[in-house]
Description:
439 residues, 2 domains, seven-stranded mixed beta sheet, four-stranded mixed beta sheet, 19 strands, globular
Amino acid sequence: MTILTGGIVVESLDPVRVSTAPLHVASGRIAPEGAAARTHDCSGCLVVPGNVCAHTHLYSALARGMPYRLDPPEDFLQILQRVWWRLDRALDLDGVGASARVGGLEALLSGTTTLIDHHASPCAVDGSLDVLEGALSGLGVRHVLCYETSDRDGAAVARAGLQENRRFIVRAAREALPLSRGLVGAHASFTLSDDTLRALVEEALDLECGLHVHAAEDGVDAGAVERLAACGALDARTLLAHGVHLDEHELRLVAEAGSWLAHNARSNMNNAVGRAEAAALDVRVPLGTDGIGADMFEESHTAWFRLREDGAGGSPDWPLRRLADGARLAGSLFGEPLLGTLVAGAPADLVVLDYDAPTPVDPATVAGHWVYGLGARHVRDVMVAGEWVVLDRRPVRIDPHELAHDARREAARLWHRLDGVEAHPFAPRGARRWQPTGV
């Protein structure tokens, strides 16, 4: 058993609960009091549940500063065609692994203990989720994986994506991988044929798991939720990403289905796709980064300030509720309803913040500290499933300098291949907005 002593413990973000009692950890869980094997001094620190990133793309981790020789994109579809669909075509399995190690380590160092990833590498589909799992499990990051099935690279690659999702989900269950779960992954409605979409829905139903899919990120994908609902793809296990271009009818469909909708404020800003109606989506709305790192402190701050700029009002506990939604989502996928809390029986996923608070910390003030004071710079120690994976701001399981050296080598290889990849030719056919048959 380990006892964390001397700190202020935020036992829950929604509702906010605070304690100054020592925190006991045993057998990977928060435990009642008992005999201690060792203590961990948290004096002058805040102990909080580990953050969850509800939608990310780890394969983007080696994209920083990558060369670009094409004409600048003029809209979101061109961003996909000229940047991301070229990058994912250039990936091989070595690049996939390097990206996962970079992204996973940065997650831990910023206090994020769970990543829900949406992966694509159309020239290296088979085994790609195993590579991700190995890299993330090696670091000690809790994670949920899927392969981004799409018809944009042809029917054979679409079939391979379906098979990769199934193979990994079955493997994770068979081997009882402690830090891994799987979802059925799909890119977005506008890159999916009717046959492929039906196959994805059937696979999710057969495997008794959710579908993780982009939805209405841009106008090119408007009407996506209506189409998903029409084919039975919306239920309480479905994880939608973005939802920027949802009308009132589609918002009702999401709410009635009880689906999750990951809000990615910084990515939406970066791609200039518009502003999600975050205030209107105030149910089951976790936060994601869409691949812009995994710092959920920064993501929650940005989402909150953008909401305030839009005049939506509310109080600073809004980002706490969004982060708690992320933990509830992850908890539902791992069968751990107490994930995201620090109460007896919960998985011991926690972060020690070196934050000697300048004002009182109590249930009424935690939101103010979170929004206006706390950040990734305060992360000192990180525990996942009862094991320390970061201590005194350094990873426990990997040499960060060796990781960075290897990542630079893989980035150079990736960029060299990328230079030979032209803009992706795929574009949606027909009307930009899907309509039901006969309309």
